[in-house]
Amino acid sequence: MAITKSQSQFPEISHLQKEEVLNDFRVAVTSRHASLMGRKEVFMGKAKFGIFGDGKELAQLAMAKAFQPGDFRSGYYRDQTFMMAIGELSVQQYFAQLYAHTDVEAEPASAGRLMNGHFATRSLDKNGDWKDLSKMYNSAADISPTAAQMPKLLGLAYASKLFRENKELKDLKKFSVNGNEVAWGTIGNASTSEGMFFESINAAGVLQVPMVISVWDDGYGISVPQEYHTTKGSISEVLMGFERNENKKGFEIIRVKGWDYEGLKQAFNSAGNLARTSHIPVLIHVEEMTQPQGHSTSGSHERYKSAERLQWEKDWDCIAKFREYIISNGIATDDALDQIESEAKTEVKRQKDAAWNEFSGEIKKEIQEVVQLLKTTAEKSTRKVVLLQMAEDLSKTLNPIRKDVISTVRKALLLLRFDGEALKSGLKSWYKLQEEKNFDRYNSHLYSQTEWSAEKVKVVPASYNEKSAMVDGREILQAFFDYTLEKDPRFFAFGEDVGKIGDVNQAFSGLQAKYGEMRVSDTGIRECTIIGQGIGTALRGLRPVAEIQYLDYLLYGLQMLSDDLASLLYRTKGGQKAPLIVRTRGHRLEGVWHSGSPMGMILSSLRGMIICVPRDMTQAAGMYRTLLESDEPALVIECLNGYRLKEKMPANLGEYNVPVGKPEILREGKDITVVTYGSMCRIVGEAAEVLSEIGISVEIIDVQTLLPFDTFGIIGESVKKTNRVLFADEDVPGGASAFMLQQVIEGQNVFKYLDCEPQTLAAKPHRPAYSSDGDYFSKPSTDDVVEKVYRIMHESNPKKFPAI
Ligand SMILES: Cc1ncc(C[n+]2csc(CCOP(=O)(O)OP(=O)(O)O)c2C)c(N)n1
Ligand SMILES: [Mg+2]
């Protein structure tokens, strides 16, 4: 292990070096005063919550020096100094986020959607197209769950490996220069206890990617001291087994103190060089950091830190030590540093006030407009006194927020319900305009709003000719992936058993041999970081297909999908995208862990992603085509039991596609509409045959994608015709079947057309038991569908359909 020496002396310091040191000091104290004032803003009620980077300034200055254009950061809420030092965060922007300013110009990381300390740069232009990331200082968009920055960090680093080793990518100049980019991670000491930290470290060691991960070690995770977090109390000691040696590849591990300016510069400089030139992963354990103000505004650290510890934190505060260093090296006097600090403080205050004025100015303007409207309305209303009081109260609100304004208007409109339209039209049209603006501020960008939205992809239907042979379903996928690997160098696939054998169902069979390991590759068994690898590479302009071997194992990666991928576009308000396609297979096959269909879980946790549930491989290939033309992240769940079923090979494979949000009517009927998807399409098809023989005509609709869900209103139209509807799937009762019912009943206005109550048919609430009998008694069978539909028909016409 390279242990850096303790605070060292500069033998000779040039004028330029002095300038640099003093500039570092200026950034450090600017950041510190932003932290100090930020906390006060929260206590004054101007912001809701604050978490700050005080005590971590010096190491971040060193990291900023080693950071180069094209590099990416994936870190956490303590990194304000780094962001300021690379010039990607002004103090004003910092405070705009604290106040939750919804203007993307004022708060470019998240447009007020994320609490303070969540950093991001904007990779996309206003149209959602990529900027030249190779020339930018990039930061992936932070998320709050501890250590969840790690999986995508792996992917950000892996992208460099792909760019360097896959020569076909050399023309993608906006994203990389020969894979020279380093992915820089930061994480708190306590967060290294999370499983995904270790999983990411191991994967980075295996893959040998240019990832520098720094642990900001302040000895605590909120109130809990180190002894509860880390074996031996030291993450670098614990990770020694990962260290590289002459014979074996691994990590470079560096240990350095958070107050040692020279040591930090050396550490980050050599880490950056090593990662950049040789693609060797590095861990920098930065010890002896402090938290001058404690963890966050939610509490005070005096409650849990001893007097000795608090005194130690004062003595070893990195800025205090930096001062000592500057003075003892004769770079500046105490007075000169006081002067710099006082200027920095004034500047922080100025920018803070500017941020507040901009933020609150918008709201004050809205208040003025509403107060005026209320007063005018009051003049002619029977509710004059109350309305005037409302106007008065609103104008006096201390630190008003938008809710105060809008809530007043809504209350006023309720009050005015008996007054004529003319009287309240001013108020109403103002409110309508604000609804649009507030939708944009708080609810937009869940899905792509660009020209690459999956819903906008031009539809090309599958075509067939005399040569179209019947083949195993998996062969259609294999031919499609072959075509796409040939056509699009950005496209690559990876996962457990995906490389050499071409996945457990052989849809990539022979393709690694044909296109190489950089295009089709095996990974370790590590679903969480398979997803992270996909997110990180997609953030850098590539088109990954990350495979989760079975749908049941998606749970290991679900957190990354939900917290990170699905929320990415929304939480950056269109500033970043990661069009990752996650490929998996599910629904019925065998037993408790290979027959899962937890679609309700997926629907609830993955809003923001496209969820495709193809009934066969022809549809799956068409969906992949659509997704690859779009810029949206997606999950495709192929039917586990469908790879060996025969399908006709389309003649225009690779060109045809399947639209999202458009159900397909698989069988026309007049008595009842059965809405389903995936493997259940065949079961319902079989049931419809049986039912037809006994005089019941079933219309079968395959929804094809659960998100988006029937944006064409096809199901509603069908129900208007049949007047009866059943939603059938293999999820638990109240899962995706209930979702489909809600979407149709609430969204498509069909209630009035129904002759009987809409119903659902799902699997049993437990996981499916093993073997064919287990399947029969756990999942909906053809018999179950027949009986369910029959009972609905019996209710309508007991004479024609007597009870069974
Ligand atoms: C998964 C998850 N669990 C719990 C939390 C709540 N939490 C936020 S910060 C934190 C402590 C983190 O400590 P450390 O990693 O040492 O970072 P520090 O704040 O000390 O810099 C905790 C428990 C969280 N954000 N995410
Ligand atoms: Mg800590």
Describe this structure in words.
Helix content is 44%, strand content 12%. It has 25 helices and 23 strands. α6 (195-207) links the parallel β4 and β5 (211-216). α1 runs parallel beside α11, α11 runs parallel beside α13 and α13 runs antiparallel to α14 (421-442). The longest helix has 47 residues, at 334-380. The radius of gyration is 30 Å and the shape is globular. The N and C termini lie far apart (77 Å). The mean pLDDT is 96. It binds thiamine diphosphate and magnesium ion (MG). Residues 78, 144-146, 188-191, 216, 218, 220-222, 295 line the site of thiamine diphosphate.
Structural class: alpha/beta
What is the CA-atom radius of gyration, in angstroms?
30 Å
Principal-axes geometry comes out as: globular
Average pLDDT level: 96
How much helical structure, as a percent, in the residues? 40-55%
The first-to-last residue Cα distance is 77 Å
| Uncertain segments | none
The main sheet comes to: 7 strands, parallel
- Largest beta sheet: what is the strand line-up? 1-8-9-5-4-2-3
**Which ligands does the model contain, each kind named once?**
thiamine diphosphate, magnesium ion
**How many individual helices?**
25
Q: In what range is the share of β-strand residues?
A: 5-15%
Number-wise, the strands total 23
